[in-house]
Amino acid sequence: MQRYEYNVVPAPRRGEKARGVKTTEDRFALALTTLMNTLGRDGWEYLRADTLPVDERTGLTGTKTSFQNMLVFRRPVDEAKAEAAPPRLVVAEPAPAPAPKLGPAEVPAGPAPSIGPAKPDLAAE
């Protein structure tokens, strides 16, 4: 059974400028070709492109979902190395526990401070 290792990289977002490459499509194709040839020299074979959701923070408490385009590459693993190295288990980090909700105080903390304009310090007189 053939074993593979995988490499996932973000897809290029901008094209590459080069002599004779004029259109946006051609520049983007050049950027993609350069990336694929660079990884191909190291033995990585292009497998597929995926669009995956990513939750991002917005503001202090908000989140929004955006999508990232990823390129998946693979290459065969040398069987001798695969036998020697123990398999790696990749575990997603658990979501943080939600903050506890606070209810009303059981015992009043005392009178609330007065709100108004600042008073001059009486002890200074």
Protein described:
- The structure is a single chain.
- The chain has a three-stranded antiparallel sheet with strand order 1-3-2, covered by helices on one side.
- A hairpin with a 3-residue loop joins strand 2 and strand 3 (62-76).
- It is built from two helices and three strands; from the N terminus they run E-H-E-E-H.
- 19% of the residues lie in helices and 29% in strands.
- By secondary structure, the chain is an alpha+beta fold.
- It has a domain at 1-77.
- It has helices at residues 24-41, 79-84; strands at 4-10, 45-58, 62-76.
- The mean pLDDT is 81.
- The chain starts with a strand and ends in a 41-residue tail after the last helix.
In brief, what are we looking at here?
With 125 residues, the protein is an alpha+beta fold.
| Average pLDDT, all residues | 81
Proportion of beta-strand residues: 25-35%
Number of strands: 3
Measured as a percent range, the helix fraction is: 10-25%
The rounded distance between the terminal residues' Cα atoms is: 91 Å
Please write the string of helix (H) and strand (E) elements. EHEEH
pLDDT below 50 for ≥5 consecutive residues: which ranges? none
How many helices in DSSP terms?
Answer: 2
Spatial strand order of the main sheet:
1-3-2
Taking the sheet with the most strands, its summary is: 3 strands, antiparallel
**In angstroms, what is the radius of gyration?**
29 Å
Oligomer status = single chain
**Spatial shape:** elongated
